[in-house]
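Worked problem 6 (solution included).
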Amino acid sequence: MAKEGKEAPFPVFGYQEERPSSWKSVENMWISGYFAHGYADDMICVESIDTIHKMIHTGQHTVYGFMTGAPWRQWFALNLLEELDVPGEYVIDAGRGKMYVYPLAGKMENWSVSLLEGPLLAIEHCKDVKVQGITSEYGRHIGVYMENTHRALIKNCIIRNMGGVGVSIGKGTLKAGNQRGHESGGNPASRVVGDLMGTVYQNILFNREGGTENGVVDCHIYNVGAGGISLGGGDRASLTPAGNYVENCRIHDYNRIEKSYRPGIWMDGVGNRISKCDIYDAPSMAILFHGNNHVIELCDITNVCSEVDDQGAVYYGRDPSEQGNVIRYCYFHELSPRHRVMATYHDDGACGAEVYGNIYHKAGSLPVLIGGGHNNHYRHNIFIDSPVAIHIDARMQGWGKFMIEKGAIIDQRLQTVNYKNPPYSTAYP
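Solution. The predicted structure is:
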């Protein structure tokens, strides 16, 4: 839209409610929500409000623009002094170095404000390190970070009240000049997560240097801002496994700030394992994985994907070279049927998964969606109280045909791993 006869540098959208017109200052205001697609939340700053024409002028670009017409396309405003009206809320005036807080009921004896931008604990280039029985909290970024470690163990720890992810194993990425979320990839960087989704989408062979045989065991991770655990390790080019693992952990309420693609556990690389974990109470995914020969087993997953559309509690997709993955003996239950929510989602040509011995009870609108891939084997699973158990479509011959054309994204990824030659040709004949 135009402003004063000139094209607006950033998106502009209209509102119908009366409430925004009463806001006197938007100096520190942000808006957040699912502005377009139900699988991508966004958070951007506001430049100004035109109360006469009921228009909000933003100060950043969104990922997918603004759309209307779907029930998930809602937004909310934050960091407004006029809206500081509920105990526990706060407003930050970064320019003046002030923070306004509506205190909780009763006497508050302790206040904690963190200025720490990096990890609380970094374990790098070492082996046989054990961290046990420690509570880590009040950081603005990563709780525990590991890189090029071998047989490092995080055991019986509590990680909470973090601004970013609880535990990150392996490098992340940063894009020069912009460290906000929803970037389109970036350069490898230590002690950050950044935009792993964008990076892996662009470079499926990205090696995070997560080391080998590292574990997160018997830990409780909650009230974190951008995901529970980011589990990397292994080399996709050579199919060399890492053997990193998450076991017997309780992970919940892990999307306080960023909701999309910040799952309870993110797993990438080759040959890693998630076992005996309880993952629950989150707006988005429980487990998102990339890569090969991973195992997800004996997990209890409930009340995730509570806000989103077109996501799965366990999700992967759009790369047929990601084969050899196993999902077994998990319990998926009480997933929202409101939108397109799946328990196990093989998206856009995902291939080669073995799924067996799982229980699906009230597990979303479609407990299982196989979106056009092949060699996905379902055996000995139980489906309870679901209108449809398994939905299989032919999208790669229909609306998704563009993805498999020569030179398109599916062909690019198969060529990247040189799939007609070892090790891929022998591992996945």
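Discussion: Residues 1-6, 178-183 have pLDDT under 50 and may be disordered.
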